[in-house]
Amino acid sequence: MTRVALAALVVLSGIMQPVFAQHPSRSSPEALEWLQKIAAAPRQHNYIGTFVYSSGNHIETSRIIHLVDAEGEHEKSEVLDGAPQEIVRNNDEMRCYMPESKTIVTEKRWLQKVFPALLPQPLSSLDDSYIVKLGGQERVSDHACQIIELEPRDDKRYGHKWWVDTRSGVLLKAAVMDKDRVVEQFVFTQLKIGVEIDKESLKSKYMAKAAGWRTINLVSSTLGSGKLGWQIKDPPPGFKKVIEMKRNLSGKPMPVGHIALSDGLAAVSVFIEPVSGQVAPPVEGLYRSRGAINIYSRTVADHIVTAVGEVPPATVMQIGDSVVSHRVK
User: Fold this and answer.
1) What are the protein's GO molecular function terms (predicted)?
2) pLDDT means per 10 residues in the chain (329 residues)?
3) 18-212 is classed in which CATH architecture?
4) Is 248:217 a contact under the CB 8 Å cutoff?
5) What is 218-325's CATH number?
6) What SS3 state is found at 240?
C-alpha cells in the first residue's frame, strides 16, 4: 500500500505559515515540455532498479520492476527494509502482500502515486499552482539528468525538485521541498532502463503460500458529485475535487465516505465515517506522519472527518475544517 493509504488506515483505526515571497509568474515552456515527458515515461519504458526513500532519520530501500506491453503497465515493488511488503500492480489494480500478518490487500490505484511515476496521465495544468523552472544538469546513478524545479505559487503546497533521465524522461531522483529544506526524497541507486523483462518476474514471490491468507478488498464505489452528503466548502486555491466515493477500509463495519482533491500534483484525501460506539474515535487534531504526509482529524455532526495528504499542515487543516454536511438532492 502507498504511504498515504497506510497513514489514513492508522488514524481511521484509532491507533499558519508565512506567505512565500513574490515570484516570476510564468513557467518555462521548455520545463513544461519536460513535465509531459516525465508523465509519459512510465507508459513507454521498461525499467528495473533499486531506490532509497529518506526522511529525517528514516531510510527505506525498495526494489522495482516495471514492464509496459500491449495490455498496459505491470509492476512489482518490494520493500527491502523492515517488515516485508510487496505490491503487484496491473494498470490500476493493486495487490499488496504482507507476509508477517498473512494478509493481502486489494484496491484501485486512484490518485496514489509510486516513485518514479509521480505525475498523472493525462497531465493537467500545473502552471496555476507552481512555477515550473529548468535547472542545470547532473549525474544520478550513472545517468545524465535534467533538473526540473516546481516552485509553489503560495504556501498551500510543497515545492518539488526532480532529476530526470535526459534520454527516457524517467525520474531518477525526486525531492519534496519546504522552501530550502528537503522534507523527503527518493533516489535510484541502481537503474536499468529499456531492458527486456520476463513477465514471470512480476509475479509475487508469496503467491504459492498466500492461498490461505486473509484477503481485504478495499472496494470503492464512485458517486455522482454531491451524492455523498458532504462537501469541501473552502478548499485552498488550486485544489479541486477529483472524485467522491464510498470505500471499504480494513476494520470498518461499513463503507467510509471518501472525497479526493488535487492541484494536479499534490493530493488530499478526506475520509468521513459515523462515530461508532464500538471503536474509540481518534484524538482530534493534527498528526505528524512521516515525510510530507500530514493528517488532521475532527468531529463534525457525529462523524469523524480525517484529512490526509502530502501537503503542509496548514493546508490539511484548512481542508479538514472546510468539510460540511449538506442535504443530498
Assistant:
1) antisigma factor binding
2) 52 43 74 96 97 96 98 97 95 95 89 86 83 97 98 97 98 97 97 97 94 86 77 94 82 82 94 80 82 94 93 97 81
3) Clam (2.50)
4) yes
5) 3.30.200.100
6) strand
Domain ranges (residues) in the chain: 18-212, 218-325
Place of cell 505525475: 119
**Cβ neighbours, 10 Å, residue 328:** 11
Sign of CA pseudo-dihedral 241, 259, 76, 188: positive
Nearest to 291 by CA among 13, 3, 2, 8: 3
Q: Which three cell numbers stand for residue 41?
A: 515515461
In angstroms, rounded to a whole number, what is the distance separating the alpha carbons of residues 239 and 220?
22
pLDDT at 241: 92
CA-closest candidate to residue 133, choices 159, 172, 171: 159
Residue 235 makes CB contacts below 8 A (sequence gap 6+) with 241, 261, 318, 319, 322
329 vs 322: CA distance, rounded Å:
20
Alpha helices in 223-287 (DSSP H): none
CB distance 115 to 63 below 8 Å: no
The pLDDT score that the predictor gives to residue 112 is 72
| Backbone dihedral angles phi then psi of residue 199, each to the nearest 5 degrees | -60, -25
312: closest CA among 177, 192, 111, 185? Answer: 177
Q: Which of 181, 190, 172 is nearest to 41 (CA)?
A: 172
Cell of 313: 499542515
Is the bond leading into 122 cis (omega within 30 degrees of zero)? yes
